[in-house]
Write a structure and sequence with these properties.
The protein is α/β, with parallel strands linked by helices. The chain contains eleven helices and 18 strands. Strand 1, helix 1 and strand 2 form a beta-alpha-beta unit.
């Protein structure tokens, strides 16, 4: 089949590769000038099955309100629009324990499969990108430890391997952790990884091209037409090019692309920040990746750099940086790994707009319009879910039985059709 893929972030590129590997003629359309220029550019790098979970969970609203005006709040609401408030309300409705458990299980199933697929691609294609093994959740207080128990039980039920560590055990795995910072317990996922998402995406793009996929950059696609939904047009005067199938992987722009087809996707931009700096002293830097559960700040090692991620923000825009959010990243880094990075010069500060659905899981599969397929809404978990999402979507387009159950990952759960 002749297939158009809209979007060349990690989701679009993995999708293009899987389709090309199955023998399809693939064309990828990207509005930016290169691959992985937006959410895939400088994300945290952590691919953790165990920590992949919906934001919408019991106690979230209380947690957010209790931190909202604190200096180091994990979530800020900045100049929200009415659409942002509607999205927050929808997220609140998905915070009950039953919905959370269902969505958590669906995301965990996809994350485990995706991690396996990413390792397979990395090893069989010899994709040499920055990687390190293991991921740890740092719990400062007993209260945080108690709040984690429900999620940990879900992981046990799913057979996922993790270890509950005391402070001394955690510091043996990450010896650079500051001994003066209070650490009650840590949850360690030895099979999880830290990896450079952008490097991986660029390498996989080359592999897709070797299979015949063609990439068109600086090419903005117009919203799909209800009368010709499988025709790609790039200008108003363009008569368009017809395809056998179209896959929408365009992040936030997906909602506008699909609107003429009668689909009203509740996608919102949940912005996130990262800072990346060169390692100052390797013995003072993390060996792999950790996350501070209280402040929701992740610290990861990417080759000779340290990357710190966090500061989620609803509303605002990707170009305006919030100084308080960025300062929180510096403070948490100094709290756990003082002196680890050269934060006085050549620091890369990045803000990305993560396209998130209110209940958490992405949408993967048919759109309800013949020939139009969806792979979108991965939010902060795009890197962790990309490879699995791409493979099951390619199998679905091919009419093959997918390796995992896609229950709860389709459009039908949002009742949009």
């Amino acid at each position: 089949m002749k297939v158009a893929v809209i979007g060349a972030g990690v989701i679009g590129v993995t999708t293009a590769y899987e389709l090309a590997a199955q023998g399809h003629q693939v064309r990828v359309f990207e509005c930016n000038g290169a691959t992985a220029e937006e959410c895939s550019f400088a994300n945290t790098g952590i691919t953790s099955s165990g920590y992949t979970a919906p934001w919408a969970k019991p106690g979230l609203v209380k947690h957010v309100l209790s931190h909202l005006w604190q200096r180091d709040t994990p979530l800020r609401i900045s100049s929200p629009s009415m659409a942002d408030w509607r999205w927050v309300w929808q997220m609140r409705r998905a915070c009950d324990s039953t919905t959370f458990a269902r969505n958590r299980a669906n995301m965990l199933r996809l994350a485990e499969y995706s991690h396996h697929r990413m390792r397979t691609l990395t090893d069989t294609l010899n994709l040499e990108h920055e990687r390190s093994q293991g991921f740890m959740v740092l719990l400062r207080t007993e209260r945080e430890s108690k709040l984690m128990q429900a999620s940990l039980q879900l992981l046990r039920d799913a057979g996922l391997g993790f270890k509950s560590l005391n402070a001394e055990e955690a510091r043996r795995i990450e010896p650079a952790l500051n001994p003066e910072t209070k650490l009650t317990r840590a949850i360690y996922f030895p099979d999880d990884e830290v990896g450079n998402c952008r490097q991986f995406t660029l390498l996989l793009k080359s592999e897709a091209e070797s299979l015949g996929a063609k990439f068109h950059f600086n090419t903005r696609v117009l919203p799909l037409s209800a009368s010709q939904p499988k025709t790609i047009r790039t200008t108003e005067q363009d008569v368009g090019e017809a395809f056998d199938a179209v896959v929408v992987c365009a992040g936030l722009a997906s909602a506008q692309l699909l609107r003429p087809l009668g689909l009203r996707l509740p996608l919102a931009a949940v912005h996130g920040y990262t800072i990346s700096a060169a390692v100052r002293e390797p013995l003072d830097a993390p060996r792999s990746g950790v996350i501070d559960e209280q402040f929701k700040v992740a610290i990861s090692r990417l080759g000779q750099r340290v990357r710190v991620s966090g500061g989620s923000e609803i509303g605002g825009n990707a170009k305006r940086h919030d100084a308080a959010s960025i300062n929180t990243l510096y403070r948490v880094l100094d709290n756990w790994f003082p002196g680890a990075a050269r934060t006085q010069d050549n620091v890369q500060v990045w803000k990305g707009s993560r396209p998130m659905l209110p209940d958490g899981p992405p949408i993967i599969g048919a759109s309800g319009v013949s020939g139009v397929w969806l792979n979108l809404g991965h939010g902060a978990s795009g890197w962790a879910l990309a490879c699995g999402s791409a493979r099951v979507l390619a199998d679905s387009i091919d009419g093959k039985k997918t390796d995992i159950d896609l229950q709860g990952l389709g459009l039908e759960r949002l009742h949009l059709q």
